[in-house]
Task: structure prediction
Amino acid sequence: MEDRITLNDRYEIIDKIGDGGMAEVFHGYDTILHRDVTIKILRDQYSQNKNFVARFKQEAYAAASLNHANIASVYDVGNEHGIQYIVLEYILGRTLKEIIVEHGPLDYKTAVKYAIGVASALAHAHSKNLVHCDVKSQNILVDTKGIPKITDFGIAKAVGQSNIQGEEKEVMGSVYYLAPEQALGQKVTPQADVYSLGVVLFEMLTGNLPFKGDTPEEVARQHLECQTPSVLQYDPNVPQALDNIVAKALAKNPLQRYGSAQELEHDLIDAEDMLYEYEDADTKRVTTPLEDNKHYADAAVGDETQVISKTAIIKSLNNTAPQKAQPSHKSHTKRYVALFLGALLIMLGFIYGAVQYNKDAIIVPDLKGKTVVQAEEILTKLKLTYSLAEEYNAEVKSGQVCRQNPAAKSRVKEGRKILVVISKGAEPGIVPDVTKKNLGEATVMLHNAQLEVGSVTVKYEKSAPQGSVLAQSTPPGTKLNLNSKVDLTVNISDGQTVVPGLAGLSLDEAKSTLASLGLSLGRINKVNSKEKANTILDADLQAGKVVEKGTSINVNVSMGEDKKKPKEDEKNKDANATNQPSTQAPATTTAEKTVEFVVPGSKSKHAVKLTLSDASSSRVIYTGSLEGGTRVRQTVTAASGSSIQFYVDDRLMEDRKL
Result:
């Protein structure tokens, strides 16, 4: 047996599965994590070109910052002996282009389902300030479960970045899917991706692309000048709602287009509801393969990502005079009458459908801030189903719902599946936006992201709330090393200051820090602790609190570990405790408490785990395999301030304080 090529003693190359404009794609195997992977290798002719290598790495860095069910995950990026490679999630399936070529136009529900998934993925990328710039059916993989996943962020750009490449003023992209503003090399916005997805939806519904030509410049010119054909020209049975969505997504003027991928997603969801509501002969479709792959075989221009000359596009525009048609008056009259009658019938049908739809519709509840268990109970009562996803969110506590789709107050039918997205808390190392928060809230948000508050400067600003953060030294969304510090500017009035964090400082350090802020050290309570003697454990005023200058701060200070003392010392201690009031901070108290959780999901078995956490440790108190709907009751003895974590199938469902 021939030895397989292995990259970095980890990734085995099994066989070649595809080609791209810049890279070759292989099926591989991760010998450490024992899983199949996809390996993209930059072609030899580009491996010495710094611009292409940078663009290739950009794909990995761009996609790695995204975490979405409809985006192919990036696992690793590397370079060995001049071989530049990216390791991605292995998706067993086919490209959307291959499916359309083999089966022809997709049925309406499938087309809308795929478009919703891609629109949701693009909305997530846009929320991270990233525009894909190369959305096309070849870059959408559909796995064996029918889930579309968008790939290839190789030419993705930050919002507002120009689409021009290099000094030659060339445009990068796939010409059949190129938004008009992209073709002109203007600054890209999320609406460019909306246009490209509109082309993909057109392609799924008709089996054709809206424009074709003999040269890339000719196709680009049509995107800029020619009226976009209606999907009804290819299939008169396409619901008017879908034709309207495609027309709006393909508007040449971005101001007339959908403002965001999320807006497009919402309209697609409404259209999907209508399709399921009126499932009859008019909305069913038997797909047939394209005859001899007619459209794609006749295409003179390839649909791969390529470099197009902006100068040639403009020249093509200047050399093409508009053609004035001379239709007869009679044909115009007949056409207008037919269009009027057809539009009238369609309008009456939709009015009737809308009335019936709203009559039985269910109002989607607002699930934000709920736990999975709470969300499940609410949706079950309304006879709605749900699917779960996770994402990082610095604003919403881990284990709580941070986003849902459809949105709250939307109207849906009974049995509709609601996407419930659970927060994983702040992404480690990603700087949250703490402006307008008070200093205490900002401190917690930074700690949740495994970052720290650096220096705190004060400033008076009349229009801002007292104690709020006016500015931060590092912009939100920046990736920092863990435990890095972010400096803050806080709004206070004259004669005020902010309580600093004292925990971990020595007494001398605390006195110096407080004095520099116009504060003083108040009562000192000695406490048994494992911390080094004279180390401050905590203070009576929370760090970040705005106080008047001259305020005294009381602290608890460690006496060091409690050693065995002579009995006389113990007696003296007892006597002192009897004869005088104690100034020592109260010891941590424990109590017996009973907690109860409900296992979410179907009747199938789920791995359930409970962990108990306090300030110093975390331990597992229960594990088991239970059916959905089972109530888990556990009695624990816990210190004040402890919390209990409820996991189902290794996913955090709830973090409850005791």
